[in-house]
Write a structure and sequence with these properties.
Strand content: 15-25%
CATH architecture of the largest domain: 3-Layer(aba) Sandwich
Keywords: Signal
Number of strands: 20
Helix content: 25-40%
Pfam families: Peptidase_M28
CATH topology of the largest domain: Aminopeptidase
Protein name: M28 family peptidase
CATH superfamily of the largest domain: Zn peptidases
Oligomer: single chain
Distance between the termini: 64 Å
CATH class of the largest domain: Alpha Beta
Radius of gyration: 29 Å
Number of helices: 14
Structural class: alpha/beta
Shape: elongated
């Protein structure tokens, strides 16, 4: 109006308006229509694409993609090629799709020796050694049954190696694996404090299954990022576990335990794969919604029923195929915020890739407004799934969870299993995937999963066992959540006072 009234015509119009105040007041300004929300590209997520990608990644060609091996690196290059073909921008180091990091491996040397009497025991084949240690001792062995106070009172254990039959009742809030480790650590510490020179546990029927599964794990040693406490070489008495079959001969009197363990350490390369679809909003594109998964698995190990390749189809080729599908959707229709995709390396070594990226992200740390993590999404009941991080104490953003629950209702309508998210669940599943390092930093984070199954970490986790319609719906659910977060004006609010139980 100011520009109009500066003209002669404008003055006349002003006078006319002054003479007719009621007519002027009757005129109303048109109401501005809210900006239309962009339509999503859910239709770009196709089951055929997901199935093709999963068979390629989880086939025998990549030999189980073990973290820190050439197989993991080859699979990572394949993923980067798919991402390039989809058309995403690289967001790793130096204009590439890759963020390289080292993992440190600490293991017993092949020269390490272990024996009881006439039994020569190959470390981590005939006897598990729970932590690499430089340690040598020769001591007489005494058997104390289950190690009760009454049994120990009958034996002088000072300066002797003590053989103990594993026993105990598992609390409801612990998995047997965790119970075994905690019990052995506690009992061993008590006996060493009482003067024992070493402690040897003998597996009962329950522990035998763990023994058989852990042998190929401990043979590889321990992994961590350089500087991690668990990669430090120690000189302490080893924690040993014999198989159940040793119970008969370990009780023989007059035997000696001979331990001569030596440690070696190596650095290996691993890699995160990072790509992005820039947002369309001039301001919100500076913020990132991070879609997370991991590409590694267990590699080649001791054969089970003739199969030695642990393909990791569900764990976690499902997550990788899902992220590729979500990339196609965001490429077809970008959102207001930037969509950031990170495939984390060496997850099975202890969340090493996500720990590294969360500490050294290739985007400003404060720009990451939410993390949506894909972990094992293709097995179990077709209509059931879990959203970890949805209940306290794992809930670090009610806002993000409400968005995810709304996306479920708008999309696949899974029946949500909340048991796996409880602090009392014996598996501690919340602490075992790549959302965790981000959640520890306070970034709103959730995990999409169809939870564990009987083929978990076995050679039977094959592409043929995946429920592809379910995996497609899990992918759509994750996408719809991310799409909503990427287009809303305010980022997901963080939960005040968030604190994990461990």
């Amino acid at each position: 109006m100011n520009s109009i009234v500066r003209t002669t015509t404008g003055w006349l119009l002003a006078g006319m308006l002054a003479a007719a105040p009621f007519a002027a007041s009757a005129q109303k300004k048109p109401t501005a229509k809210p900006a239309a929300k962009p339509a999503n590209a859910e239709s770009a997520i196709r089951e055929a694409d997901i199935k093709r990608d999963l068979y390629a990644l989880a086939g025998d060609h990549y030999r189980g993609r073990e973290g820190g091996t050439l197989d993991e690196l080859k699979a990572s290059v394949w993923l980067a090629d798919q991402i390039r073909a989809i058309g995403l921008q690289p967001a790793g180091d130096d204009g590439t799709y890759f963020q390289w990091f080292h993992l440190q491996r600490t293991r017993l040397t092949k020269a390490s020796k272990l024996s009881i009497g006439t039994h020569q025991l190959k470390p981590n084949a005939d006897a598990l050694v729970f932590a690499p240690t430089n340690y040598a001792v020769t001591a007489p062995l005494v058997y104390v049954g289950t190690g009760t106070a009454a049994e120990l009172a009958k034996v002088d254990i000072k300066g002797k190696a003590v053989a103990v039959l594993f026993s105990g009742t598992v609390p409801a809030d612990l998995s047997f694996r965790r119970f075994l480790t905690l019990t052995m650590n506690t009992k061993s510490a008590e006996l060493l404090k009482a003067g024992a020179a070493a402690v040897v546990f003998v597996a009962d029927a329950r522990a035998q299954a763990i023994y058989e599964h852990w042998g190929h794990i401990y043979e590889r040693g321990r992994y961590g990022l350089p500087g991690d406490p668990n990669t430090k070489v120690v000189d302490t008495p080893p924690l040993l576990l014999l198989p159940e079959s040793a119970k008969d001969w370990v009780q023989q009197a007059g035997q000696q335990l001979v331990v001569d363990l030596k440690v070696e350490s190596f650095l290996y390369p691993s890699v995160n794969i990072v790509a992005t679809v820039p947002g369309t909003d001039a301001q919100l594109r500076k913020e990132n919604v991070l879609f997370s998964t991991h590409q590694d698995h267990d590699g080649v190990r001791a054969p089970v029923a003739g199969d030695s390749i642990y393909n990791g189809a569900d764990d976690n080729a499902t997550g990788c195929a899902a992220l590729l599908a979500i990339m196609r959707a965001f490429k077809k229709q970008p959102a207001r915020r930037t969509a950031l995709f990170v495939f984390h390396g060496a997850e099975e070594r202890g969340l090493l890739g996500s720990r590294y990226y969360s500490a050294k992200p290739t985007v400003p740390p404060s720009s990451i407004v939410a993390v949506l993590n894909a972990e094992m999404m293709g097995r179990n009941a077709p209509d059931s799934a879990a959203l970890l991080g949805s209940i306290a104490p794992h809930l670090n953003s009610s806002d993000l969870v409400k968005t995810a629950l709304a996306a479920n209702q708008a999309g696949p309508k899974f029946k949500l299993d909340t048991e796996w998210d409880k602090a009392t669940h014996p598996e501690g599943w919340y602490f075992r995937s790549d959302h965790l390092p981000y959640a520890r930093l306070g970034i709103p984070a959730v995990m999409y999963t169809s939870v564990l199954h009987v083929d978990y970490h076995t050679p039977r986790d094959e592409p043929s066992r995946i429920d592809y319609p379910k995996l497609t719906r899990m992918t759509q659910w994750m996408y719809l959540t991310g799409w909503a977060v990427a287009n809303r004006t305010a980022p997901p609010a963080r939960e005040p006072g968030f604190k994990l139980e461990r």
